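Raw record, unedited: Transposase
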Amino acid sequence: MQPTQNLTGEILGIDLGIKDLAIVSNGKVYKNINKTGKVRKIEKRLRRLQRKVSRKYEMNKEGTRFVKTCNIYKLEKEIRHTHRKLGNIRQNHIHQTTTEIVKTKPSKIVVETLNVKGMMKNKHLAKSVAQQKFYEFKRQLQYKCEDYGIELVEADKFYPSSKLCHECGYKKVDLKLSDRTYHCEECGYTADRDYNASLNLASYIA
């Protein structure tokens, strides 16, 4: 870690998710780029191209053999280009998000440890998890923190950041994934579920 003089002394907690990419304890929310009209339009075009090339293969089938025509080569080239375009959009969004976070110059950032492999086993979540590129987010955040001299901490994977009340520490064991608002039965504290988690991460002690 390179020593940097102008850090603020602030500790930021970052909750990562599917609804939004990152929710930060300073109140900043970084959207899920995959839910934007721009990305959905490109994905729709990609699906259309993939269906089109599949039909072309069927039309040009000779027995058990597929014959590639100029049209198929052209379509496959367009599909590769569209995949690259989507990848670049997602990569750029992560770059902009991580850069903006480190430029606030906190002294320490605490990020949750997600069980990405486990999440990928859920057929309803797998595609969304893959598109969010959580590993890439952490990779970029790590090297940028090193450049700024910011301490980066990954909370223990068993730390229940979403289930703890930030105000009183009460643990809500029955909190469901579908519960988007955290309401504490002990002290009455109410907050957005992900924002509450980010505040708990900011208070995390390894």
